[in-house]
Amino acid sequence: MSLLRCALTAARPALRPTLRSAPLRALSTTLRTSSDHAKPPSIFGPGGKAGEVPTDFEQATGLERFELLGEMEGIDVFDETPLDSSRVGTKKDPIMVLSYDPMRVIGCTGSPADSHDIIWLNLPKDRQRFCTECGSVYQLDYQGSAEEAHHH
Length: 152
Prior knowledge:
Layout: H1 3-21, H2 56-59, H3 62-73, E1 95-99, E2 103-108, E3 119-124, E4 129-130, E5 137-142
Parallel strand pairs: 1-5
Antiparallel strand pairs: 2-3, 4-5
């Protein structure tokens, strides 16, 4: 008999009581029931009609659809406006960066704009960051909820 079989044969009686003492649990499922709550807006498009090429709006899903729906409402859902480069931010008066996420990546080009190459900075919600090229200080203006800040 091999060494492995001997070990398994010796361990088997010790494992049996553990396996037998574990209670059996039946798994079951229930159907979802409908409620009177309003449905959230769909992030899936209706798709194209048979025999036709769908438009961008009809086939867009996810973030692309979210952006198209925002454009239809006249809302810039991804704030792409440049940061204030008319001044250099200081520790007492930093350049505030709006964010709904607890971390944002920003690019500094100096003050006045384009006075140096882009320096990319990770800007967390709980501390200020400064550009190593021009010294401008940035701080996150976090607008999200407290629960979202702890998603990691």
